[in-house]
Amino acid sequence: MDKRQRYIDWVQAFIAVILFALVIRSVIFIPVQVDGHSMYPTLEDGDRGIVNRFEPHIFGYDRFDIVVFQATKDDTYVKRIIGLPGDEITYLNDELYINGEIVEEPYLNSLKQALKEGELLTDNFTLEQLYGVKTVPAKHFFVLGDNRRGSTDSRSESVGFVSMKQMRGKLAFILLPVENRQFVQ
């Protein structure tokens, strides 16, 4: 094999690797940056991570997944799925009820411990009070930020229920800053 052919082979291999990386980045994984404090203490403002677009297409979304969705034409939000399609969601005295059963939210413990006596992290509500419906609509999710006092989420009419079409994927990993590096659960 002459030098020219070896050079052509290397260029083709390099182009193939670049194309493969672009496909992986655009189809399977996409970068995201957390903007704001709505997911504190789980995520911090400025955290940079990777969104897995592929896995949800196979396995779907689960309750408490941290997801990225297209909130407006220009804005993507990072929130936690609380309600799945068909779920009845109630918040009463800082307790989450899903379909009438209390569901623990351990990721909120540090925020709840910092509250003064009698204060609520999450104001009381039902879906009926918010939207006049008893359950999360089909092909939609009810999402909340972990920092319930500082989050624009499904409790707000500007966000409302999040449709499957709005979903961009699950937050899989925080890369930067290095001290916050973690797999997201």
Task: Please describe what this structure looks like.
With 185 residues, the chain is of the alpha+beta class. The strands form two sheets. Strands 1, 2, 3, 4, 9, 10, 11 and 12 form an eight-stranded antiparallel β-sheet that branches. Strands 7-6-5-8 form a four-stranded antiparallel β-sheet. A hairpin with a 5-residue loop joins β3 and β4. The N and C termini lie far apart (51 Å).
What would a concise description of this structure say?
By secondary structure, the chain is α+β, with helices and mostly antiparallel strands. The protein is 22% helix and 30% strand. It contains four helices and twelve strands.
First-last Cα distance = 51 Å
Please outline the major beta sheet: 8 strands, antiparallel
Count of DSSP-assigned helices: 4
Low-pLDDT segments: none
Global structural class: alpha+beta
% residues in beta strands: 25-35%
H-E order: HEEHEEEEEHEHEEEE
Shape: elongated
This entry's quaternary arrangement is single chain
In which range does the helix fraction lie? 10-25%
Give the total of beta strands.
Answer: 12
Mean pLDDT rating? 89
Rg over CA atoms, rounded to whole Å, is: 20 Å
Topology diagram in text:
Elements: H1 3-28, E1 29-33, E2 48-52, H2 55-59, E3 66-70, E4 76-83, E5 89-92, E6 95-98, E7 101-103, H3 109-113, E8 125-126, H4 127-131, E9 140-144, E10 162-163, E11 167-176, E12 182-183
Antiparallel strand pairs: 1-2, 2-11, 3-4, 3-11, 4-9, 5-6, 5-8, 6-7, 9-10, 11-12
